[in-house]
């Protein structure tokens, strides 16, 4: 874990470190946590290194690296092996750290005093060495920075921008990996010669001050890998899925997706039959608000292009009226919904899974919507395409749920795991040129899906009111019944056509008496915890729900039949996926493992929680990990 003030380069430092580790043949999984201000408050990055792809982070870390006092105060009880810190902050008292929230300060002060220590960083250091046997590595950051300034012939204020590189270089040296990989990563990151130079010198000096401790061997690195975060994965999935219009209004953490698409809006395709190369452009529009964003996306979808928007909780709240219009008019539009802490502004930069019920029920009146949820970066990529396919095939809004913990986590993935060559674009009942001057756009059909023609191909009528098959406003009771049923019927068609096996994933021991259900980002922590629990004789089955509407009720009933433990694991208070399960199947979870403090689930806390349920019979375990 590396920590420092928001805006001081924590994220950049972690990426430099992670890329160097990846160059050594290792896989990484990292998560960044940050306050909702621009600069100054505490930010930290938690990174797992493994010889096989990890899927989560841990609350307890082997190495804690800091370049300020607050990181030490906030995280000292999370370190297991080594603490690297700057000698400059030794005399800093917890009460003096103005950026630290008062409740955290009070907790730290109380803890240290109860242990018989003072409240300075030096007191924390003494506690860690004496009480926990932690190896402490003090580094005089200022002395190194003065040497950097001297060797690079720059002012000390310029050299100070390499402070965070000192921290990661010391951490990297502990691993015992090839130093050149870190230097290469620095060179690739800093394009300006002066910054590449000062950071390279700082890294070399820092590595000279530390001795290797873990001596990790270099691993074969002979396969193509890709470093993805959740936002980027979803964005690439949309691009591969044929996206041609994306609207958005800036909001955390959804904006990164649209920014990525805009930076890669020129798309090159090859006709597989003729070999002809084509160039097209994805139009990305920053709207004046979220209602405009959903309406723009709907308008684009009606022209026949694949269209989507992306938002988070408060933005989705504003989109609800527009989504209702899309439901009434059977618009094939995708909403990528990044879930963060609420209600209201809530915790803009923290994770949550509390919006599941909202996504399933948002909007007045009844209309079909398909709701899918990604559990890792590979799924986020495929779901970007899947959502567009589903929207066009069933002519209905599709909501793609990605919780913030997944959006802002990174992982190194073997490129072949993405299966990019298997991506297929599926189209629905599209009529390009109608032979009639007027299309029965809402024709009542057996499956509820009507012929679709893009605007301009023929005369088409759209309105927010109830309408007849041509789209003209009609309020007659018989027409209302037929059109209402026609729209809802599409959900039954989707339920019939989409294999239930594709709507959930199954892992672990299918014969176990223990069944865990989850969705979204907790998947990774649970799978990693399950691997560790196997040696202790606990071998559960995990069911990850991938689609909530239509819900895979028949398969869920079959899978959960006869289980002694049905443990619902998710990041909200009420166990909303468990409520959806009960609503659709009549089966209720027997136990819950829940978390709602805004931090991601971590494998070590999930492991202990599962043990508490299975071995101690605890009905509800609440997780608290994360600063």
Give an overview of the whole structure:
The chain contains 22 helices and 24 strands. The chain has an eight-stranded mixed beta sheet, with helices on both faces. The chain is globular and about 80 Å long. 50% of the residues are buried. The model has no long low-confidence stretch (mean pLDDT 95). GO terms for molecular function: 2-oxobutyrate synthase activity; 2-oxoglutarate synthase activity; pyruvate synthase activity. Residues 7-208 form the Pyruvate/ketoisovalerate oxidoreductase catalytic domain. Residues 513-581 form the Pyruvate:ferredoxin oxidoreductase core domain. It is an enzyme of class 1 (oxidoreductase).
List the helices and strands and how they pair.
Blueprint: E1 2-5, H1 10-23, E2 27-34, E3 42-50, E4 61-66, H2 69-75, E5 79-86, H3 102-114, H4 121-132, E6 135-139, H5 141-152, H6 156-159, H7 163-175, H8 179-189, H9 193-208, E7 225-229, H10 230-240, E8 243-248, H11 255-263, E9 266-270, E10 277-281, E11 283-286, H12 290-302, E12 306-312, H13 313-328, E13 333-341, E14 347-351, H14 356-361, E15 370-373, H15 377-394, E16 398-403, H16 404-407, E17 409-414, H17 415-418, H18 477-497, E18 504-508, E19 514-518, H19 522-534, E20 541-545, E21 547-549, H20 553-560, E22 565-570, H21 576-585, E23 591-594, H22 603-616, E24 620-622
Parallel strand pairs: 1-4, 4-5, 5-6, 8-11, 8-12, 12-13, 13-16, 15-16, 19-20, 19-22, 22-23, 23-24
Antiparallel strand pairs: 1-3, 2-3, 2-17, 7-17, 9-10, 13-14, 15-21, 18-20
Function: Catalyzes the coenzyme A-dependent oxidative decarboxylation of different 2-oxoacids such as 2-oxoglutarate, pyruvate and 2-oxobutyrate to form their CoA derivatives.
Subunit structure: Heterodimer composed of an alpha and a beta subunit.
Pfam family, one: PFOR_II
